[in-house]
Amino acid sequence: MWKIALCQIDIAFGEPETNFKRVRRALAEAADKGATVAVLPEMWNTGYALTELGSLADSHGERTKRFLSEIAAEYSLNIIGGSVSVKDDGKFANVMYAFDAHGDFLSSYKKAHLFQLMDEHLFLEAGNDTNLFLLDDKKAAGFICYDLRFPEWFRAHTARGAEVLFIAAEWPSKRIHDWEKLAVARAIENQAFVVAVNRVGKDPKNEFGGRSLVVSPRGEILLQADGSEGNFYTTIDLSEIKKVRGRIPVFEDRRPELY
């Protein structure tokens, strides 16, 4: 059993210092409430201050990695670190880091699908690698926002054994219906838990809807947050994955030679 903390925070546009403080408070509360895993939203260090990344983005992700590792070890808390803006050799990326409850590094993932409606393709470099890792001996995978619209990307991970799918997002309110429906679809078709965390609040161009959620491998919404800032909690029974996949053997019946 895992107790999941969805850290649905507001993000101060272009203010890393403010955001690091907010994230620390959210993670401390998650630990105090007995969470096993805490999950953060997308681009939480800077928001979509894309024109200012030269001065704001985390150089090689070093500050973020040190920060998350120290908190994970201090609180014995697994952390799926949402994502942050990172600069590396003059290029910028939207990167997710994950750490286990000992503070040990689990994975790094550069967002594969860049969202043109928020100008990501003009400022950020896309990644090419999967994001598979072991979390408490359970195979998991991590994704970032727009990735949710690409079912083949999720299947590429579950076909390799992923059973819990984490999603960090800055998903605008005007498309929040899509967010909820797509999260449920990814859970059902992959017979996996989906843990999806969205931000709340506004930036100069968008309003963000929250509505973070946890979905079971059967497509049941176990937790649906509202549009307010705060941590939201639920517990997932990891044994359910094997039961669901045993009942309808989707992965055994695939015909990848056709697609």
UniProtKB/TrEMBL annotation:
Domain CN hydrolase: 2-238
Source superkingdom: Bacteria
Keyword check for Hydrolase: yes
InterPro entries reported for this sequence: C-N_Hydrolase, C-N_Hydrolase_sf
Key words of the record: Hydrolase
Pfam family, one: CN_hydrolase
Molecular function per GO: hydrolase activity
Family assignment from sequence similarity: Belongs to the carbon-nitrogen hydrolase superfamily. NIT1/NIT2 family.
Protein name, per record: Hydrolase
Protein source organism: Listeria kieliensis
Taxonomic path: Bacteria, Bacillati, Bacillota, Bacilli, Bacillales
